[in-house]
Fold this sequence. Notes:
There is one protein chain. By secondary structure, the protein is an alpha+beta fold. It has 10 helices and 7 strands. Helix 3 runs antiparallel to helix 4, helix 8 packs across helix 9 and helix 9 runs antiparallel to helix 10.
Amino acid sequence: xxxxxxxxxxxxxxxxxxxxxxxxxxxxxxxxxxxxxxxxxxxxxxxxxxxxxxxxxxxxxxxxxxxxxxxxxxxxxxxxxxxxxxxxxxxxxxxxxxxxxxxxxxxxxxxxxxxxxxxxxxxxxxxxxxxxxxxxxxxxxxxxxxxxxxxxxxxxxxxxxxxxxxxxxxxxxxxxxxxxxxxxxxxxxxxxxxxxxxxxxxxxxxxxxxxxxxxxxxxxxxxxxxxxxxxxxxxxxxxxxxxxxxxxxxxxxxxxxxxxxxxxxxxxxxxxxxxxxxxxxxxxxxxxxxxxxxxxxxxxxxxxxxxxxxxxxxxxxxxxxxxxxxxxxxxxxxxxxxxxxxxxxxxxxxxxxxxxxxxxxxxx
Length: 364
């Protein structure tokens, strides 16, 4: 406070206007120049702050904050140049310049070690090339998967058909062991058929364009629950569906997400007398997170990274049926919508699968 008082009232100091002999043209030149420079300096940090807040994924984004502070200080020094034309507050101007100098030193000291790391960041051309290569590889894999899955259908139908014919025509003449083995063939043929269907769904997903529209997720979840309950009429599962905010997405694909997640909740609570499934939302950092929670078998979190891989199963086939493709399909659908999906669980204490979807209209 003493500095401000001294700077504004000291009789030994004269304002800069005296140095310019109060020449109107010279005063106007300095006033206009410093005003424009100050406005330009202030616009730069405002732009940087807006950019960093919108693109929090940018590497070294904290450096933008330091640079914004330094540039704002530079702008303030030019504001003081205007002020001191008429007011000799040179101590205040000096303190502001010293603060700007400290900010500049800190910015430079933090920036120099980052330069080698920044140089290694891929260019836009490199990223575009890598993206084209990745897209081509994914397209080839999807085509291969579709072709293999489609070509397997014919021989599989033959195996299943002949096994069924053998059971119908000669089942009575076969001993118990032969009938058991024939049943194993039919069961595995059906399981292979389901696996092929899932693989075809996974391969088709990459070629399907998204048809985004507003989605009533609560209504869609109720429809899925009703369908699952009708498939097991003798089973009691307590299902709680909370308010689900509207989302945007492809109706058919998001329906598949709900079918897989709610279906898994029904499946892994099988055998529980107090089976419970909860479908709801929570808000975190301004983003709506949807979840499906159950009190079923759960799983060990050390294997969580395997959950969303194709053919990855954390339970034996004789415990719970499935092909190991459903969660991979869920992840790919959610990612195509620009969302995230993750899980949290404990063994024998249930699991919670969470995902995000756009809350406003998206491009295909």
